[in-house]
Amino acid sequence: MESTPYTLIGTPFSTFTRTVAMGLRYKGLKYNQVSTPPSSPVAFEHHPFGFLPTLIIHEDQGKRVDVKLRESQAIVRFIDRIAPSPSLHIAPGEGGAVIEEKMWELVSLAACFGYPIVEVGVVKPRVKAMDEGKLSEEKIRQQLESGVVKLKEFLTLVESLMAPDGFAFGEHPSWADFFLFPLIADLRALHEWNVVGRRLNEWMGKMDELPAVKETTPGTLAVGARP
């Protein structure tokens, strides 16, 4: 058997990879990580489209299986099944959520809409422009103007779905927090952080206290890293 039962394929810079890494650490599951950017030969070796992350499951119920599990929402469901505690789910009524599926609604909004709005629309072009050093700050802001408009709309929506205080749905973290945090953490490293409202600012402070967040910070934009 492998020294650890799981191998996580993906750079720490990847937001979806960080979500999975946070979940593994929060639930106390040991894993190795192979740092590689998307669309690399290693990424394509494990994912048919070169996306991140992939979780290689070396053993299951004491048997060697070496299964490749792709797509973050599939991976977190596997993590939940093998390690239901500590829970990253909510109960009906927590944080104002009438039904527990409201957590998965926020997960999907972060993954399907938050990623293109935050990362593709603002973070990646801002970082690219900063690294190239060819444009003035004024020009960069002009280029990001339409993206920032969509960013504000997304952040307003997110805050409207969150509990008034604490984590996204109140007293304990959930998968909604873990899918949302890497996006907002990237944003915090940039000038565009100034559009983030009070609720998300306070929520970030709450998230920063989690060991799973602290342990997955190296290699991210927050510390000046690149893929």
UniProtKB/TrEMBL annotation:
Residues covered by the GST N-terminal domain: 4-87
Matching SUPFAM superfamilies: GST C-terminal domain-like, Thioredoxin-like
Gene3D superfamilies: 1.20.1050.10, Glutaredoxin
A Pfam family annotated for this UniProt entry: GST_C_2
Domain GST C-terminal: 96-227
GO cellular component terms attached to this protein's record: cytoplasm
Organism, scientific name: Laccaria bicolor (strain S238N-H82 / ATCC MYA-4686)
Name this polypeptide is given: Predicted protein
InterPro entries in the cross-refs: Glutathione-S-Trfase_C-like, Glutathione-S-Trfase_C_sf, Glutathione_S-Trfase_N, GST_Omega/HSP26, Thioredoxin-like_sf
